[in-house]
Amino acid sequence: MSLGNVIEVARAYLGVTEDPPGSNRTIFGAEYGLDGQPWCVMFLWYCFQHAGERMAFFGGGKTASCGMLLRWYKEQGLTVPVSEVRVGDIVILDFSGQRKDTQHCGLVTEVLGNGWYVQTIEGNTTNTNKDTSNDSNGGCVAAKTRYPSQIVAVCRPQYQPEEPEAKDDITGHWAEVSIRRCMERGLLRGYPDGSFGPDKPVTRAELAVILDRMEDDGK
Questions:
Q1: pTM of the predicted model, to two decimals?
Q2: Most buried residue among 41, 59, 115, 128 by CB atoms closer than 10 A?
């Protein structure tokens, strides 16, 4: 599980709206337990929960308040200057032009223009193709463009490390069938990165392990 999972979950809900319109009723609020209340924070809570990154959001706790969310990240030393924003950060937003209030929040999915603006996914905002005068209570999950003048603070969740992608260097190799048979019997195993190294020289230590496994296999 990782940052990529959180963004993938958030993207899966783009276009989802309140039902009925103007009710603040959503699957995010229903699962959180505060259905019918403003839900921009609850949307992010839901995404982290379903992406397996529960602890990265508010320490695994629950909050539906932008102010409380920001306060927790500040207390943990997990806020950074707006100029250092990056993908995966949570931005706290204020549309008054004062950059003081904590009106809204979003998940950063892209940093563009050398940091001059960011792309976010937000809950309870306006659809990008409709009126944008009520971005902090628009009733929709949407991708938005945000500028430093709108960002009060940047919170940095501590995501789990990305799992390395397994490398397949066996398929198509002339010894593939024999290698797979030995792996099924437990005589041979690959390296931690998922590769096998079929053409790598065998060290004496590796040979000793193989012979020992063969002896156990024959018992």
A1: 0.75
A2: 41
Lowest model confidence (mean pLDDT) among 62-71, 137-146, 173-182: 173-182
Instruction: Classify residue 72 by burial, with Cβ atoms within 10 Å: 0-12, 13-18, 19+.
Output: middle
Nearest to 107 by CA among 144, 79, 77, 147: 144
Question: For 101-160, how does the pLDDT look when each residue is reduced to its tens digit (9 = 90+)?
Answer: 899 999 999 999 888 999 999 999 998 655 556 788 899 999 999 999 999 999 999 999
Structural domains in the chain, CATH included, are 3-155 (3.90.1720), 176-217 (no CATH)
Q: Which of 43, 130, 117, 45 is nearest to 85 (CA)?
A: 117
Query: 63 with 41: CB under 8 angstroms?
Result: yes
C-alpha distances out from residue 36 to 16, 30, 93, Å? 15, 8, 21
Q: Is 208 helix (H, G, I), strand (E, B) or coil?
A: helix
